[in-house]
Design brief:
The chain is 31% helix and 19% strand. With 231 residues, the protein is of the alpha/beta class.
Amino acid sequence: MTSGSLRVEVERDAEAAARRGAVEIAQAARTAVDANGSFAIAVSGGTTPWAMFRALSDHDVPWDAVGIWQVDERIAPRGHDDRGLTHLDASLPDDARSRIVAMPVDGLDPSDDVACEAAASAYSATLPDAFDVIHLGLGDDGHTASLAPGDPVLEVRDRDVAITGVYRGRRRMTLTFPVLDRALRILWIATGAPKAEPLRTLVARDPSIPAARVTTPDQLAIVDLEAAGSL
């Protein structure tokens, strides 16, 4: 189904959605490398994409021409289970791990606003002009990246990377809407019954949730039957 710029593909379960997402990323990487010599992707944290990253090992991806950035990251010690990087390292194929450009949150004091903003600015300087693909998740409250309801970062338009307030126990570094909107494609992955209501809101393009405020023209959502609900 299609709603405005958003296309929705429904797979039978979370594993099938993960495999379909891996196919989409691998195809996009090969196409971009053939056309331009490189492929830039930003990937989100959370549990949903881990199976998708693992499934990439089944595909032919020109990893030596790929750059992998983080969409967001919790400010927590390196190796901590809260860190998206911990699970990204554990899930990606061996050849892909060296391609990660990690958000520089190691050793940051989340109460030191000056240091946090300096780290965000440093990460911003590493970003490509526009990502070929940005992978986004969908929170049960409608957040995406670390753009959560009510957080001041929702209004940031003059920076590509920003620091959030405390959300579910952690401050985070996140890409902002201007970066998401410049991407050539957004790839949403949403699975499980708790995602059904925010997915309906996203499909309706209702800006009451942060996810629906992403305006990138080319958006594909790969979801499972539980998340699709009554779509």
